[in-house]
Design brief:
The chain is an alpha+beta fold. The chain has 16 helices and 19 strands. It has three domains: about 35-165, Jelly Rolls (Sandwich), CATH 2.60.120; about 175-515, Glycosyltransferase (Alpha/alpha barrel); about 530-595, no CATH class. About 45% of the residues lie in helices and about 15% in strands. β16 (about 305) and β17 (about 310-315) form a beta hairpin. The protein is globular, with a radius of gyration of 26 Å. Mean pLDDT is about 95; it is low at about 10-30. GO terms for molecular function: carbohydrate binding.
Length: about 600
């Protein structure tokens, strides 16, 4: 018999016996969230096997041995009514990211459902597909492998949860409070009063003797992010304490053997100096920059080395951030030599480690001593720092080629590193835990420089809403290696910092999205009235609401702006019901409203 379990929150368990009657009650939908979980090992299996070696699986086992064409799992599900449902897949993937196609009753729904790598086969995580239409009664859910649709890599498939959409799944617009709570949680759960640094993970199972110099640099950065958003100088004070802790742990010297690590420290301290005018931070930046420049050589045409013991290995992490630092220093001091360094490093990097066809950024050259470029190493981190370098040079020079390069790489990154839900799928542990956060920092810089990049802004905010949905019900606000599905503990500091960066930069992008929405609403209302798709009486009401939205949002009254946007939606819906709004007009305007009100 197929192993499954049902969930009827609010309704007492006895009602399970009368599930047929419950299914027929439309009124119950408003007070319950129906769900049912199915054991994948008890589905109809096509050329796959089952195992039960790993702990904590659901049901009688899980599907394994799965990495070839013609392999698939069919699960018969039974739902109470015709509706859109969310399908949640519980899985593990120690071999890295994997993809499978999804069908319902033989019809393709998603050709590539992406499963992020989980690090080990014992680490069970989830991904989901929203808004899948199922008919009342039985439906066959197929997850299968077909290399022609992009299926790849090994996967263990444990269970399928089918559930109705719930208000709990929606994160309301406005992430300021959430970003504040993320910062507070990071301090409460990671800060070490003895070392004056952040611990390496939470819970503190790991020995903190290991010193992650560059993780701590990003710790300074998130504290400055919080200060810039709030004006609360407490965060600058804490950043200063962290700097002292880092310097002490580093033997009293701020320098390091890794050029990329020193760059992250210099970038953080340059920001800290700008806000505090503390000469010690200024001197530390100059000390680091002078040391970093010694990593440049003409081998392989130029570039800064990765570390001081392998000077012939040049990579993106040691070059793109160097462009950002040199450009910032030029902005701050006006030293022409710094701008020349920025351009020289950028040109070498672009000509050597960037795919000219799509802007994808490769990792490095000559890592193994054979002169080869690591084109198969694709990381969000590398894309982010190149975007940041390009944006900074555009801001300084006004040369469109730099902005075009940033946009091309950002668009390629969004396409290449995003899963079926629009979530950045790259999993991360250790140093890799920071990669996604670094990407979001510099995508945000691009959007703030070119506010026409609304889709990129929405991408970052979607990721922030997803990761908040993941952690909001947890006792602590924590961010793991994946930004959707199950939160896995322990959480490393690198992962937590990445999540905080995401939240902070999503907050900075929300005004860009909101402004674009109300401006487009105003334009569309006028156009649709002129075209006869809106009656004048309705258009007048809608236009008034848009003006109120703009007025309150520009005064910082976010809640009032949202209230007027909700009123806009009510007028729109009433107009449609009365036949005063055409279907075309309704769809266009509702699509815009949904960007804010979900």
């Amino acid at each position: 018999m197929l192993f499954k379990r049902c969930g009827f929150p609010v309704v007492i368990a006895v009602l399970f016996v009368f599930s047929t009657l419950v299914f027929q009650s439309e009124n119950l939908k408003a007070t319950t969230s129906w769900s049912e979980e199915y054991d994948a090992a008890q589905g109809t299996l096509h050329n796959v096997v089952t195992e039960n070696a790993e702990a904590n699986y659901f049901g009688e086992g899980y599907v394994a041995g799965w990495n070839g064409d013609g392999q698939a799992v069919d699960i018969q599900v039974n739902v109470p009514r015709d509706d859109k449902y969310t399908l949640v897949f519980n899985y593990s993937g120690a071999a890295g990211s994997a993809t499978r196609y999804l069908e319902v009753d033989g019809e393709m729904v998603v050709d590539q459902v992406r499963f992020s790598g989980t690090g080990s086969w014992a680490d069970w995580q989830t991904t989901y597909v929203k808004d899948v239409f199922l008919t009342a009664g039985e439906n066959t859910i197929t997850l299968g492998f077909d290399s022609t649709t992009g299926s790849r890599n090994w996967l263990n498939y444990d269970s399928l949860l089918v559930k109705e959409a719930s208000s709990e799944d929606v994160v309301e617009w406005g992430l300021k409070e959430e970003a504040d709570r993320a910062q507070q949680s990071t301090y409460e759960n990671f800060w070490n009063d003895n070392s004056h640094m952040f611990n390496n993970q939470y819970p503190h199972n790991e020995n903190n003797d290991q010193f992650h110099y560059w993780w701590q640099a990003h710790g300074i950065d998130i504290l400055i992010d919080r200060y810039e958003r709030s004006g609360d100088e407490t965060y600058l004070d804490q950043a200063g304490i962290l700097y002292e802790g880092i310097k002490t742990r580093n033997g009293g010297d701020i320098r390091n053997d890794f050029y990329d690590d020193m760059l992250w420290m210099a970038l953080a301290l340059q920001r800290l100096h700008l806000h505090t005018d503390n000469p010690e931070y200024e001197q530390a930046v100059h000390t680091l920059w002078e040391d970093i420049k010694t990593g440049w050589s003409d081998e392989y045409g130029g570039g800064i080395a990765w570390n001081k013991f392998q000077l012939d290995y040049k990579n993106t992490p040691s070059n793109a951030p160097a462009v950002i630092l040199a450009a910032r220093l030029y902005e701050q001091y006006g030293n022409q030599e710094d701008l020349e360094w920025a351009k020289k490093i950028y040109n070498w990097h672009k000509n050597t480690l960037v795919d000219p066809t799509n802007g994808l950024v490769w990792d490095g050259i000559n890592r193994t001593g054979d002169g080869n470029i690591d084109k198969s190493w694709e990381f969000t981190y590398n894309q982010g720092v190149y975007i940041g370098a390009s944006v900074k040079l555009f801001e300084i020079t006004g040369d469109q080629q730099y902005l075009d390069a940033a946009i091309q790489t950002a668009e390629t990154t969004k396409e290449r590193f995003t899963n079926h839900n629009g979530i950045i799928y790259e999993g991360g542990t250790g140093d890799g835990g920071l990669f996604k956060g670094i990407l979001t920092r510099y995508v945000a810089e691009l959007v703030k420089t070119d506010q026409s990049q609304i889709e990129l802004a929405e991408w970052i905010v979607t990721n922030a809403q997803s990761v908040w949905n993941q952690t909001k019900t947890e006792p602590e606000i924590l961010f793991g290696g994946t930004w959707e599905g199950t939160l896995s503990k322990p959480v490393e500091l690198s992962q937590q910092l990445s999540g905080v960066m995401l939240m902070e930069h999503a907050v900075t992008l929300e005004p860009v999205i909101f402004e674009s929405v109300y401006k487009e609403l105003a334009t569309q209302v006028d156009t649709l009235q002129t075209d006869g798709d809106l009656k004048k009486s309705v258009a007048k009401k809608l236009s008034n609401r848009v003006r109120q939205v703009e007025h309150h949002y520009n005064k910082g009254n976010d809640k009032q702006a949202l209230k007027h946007l909700a009123e806009f939606e009510k007028h729109l819906q009433k107009g449609k019901e009365k036949g005063h709004v055409t279907e075309l007009a309704y769809e266009k305007l509702q699509l815009l409203v949904d960007k804010i009100l979900n």
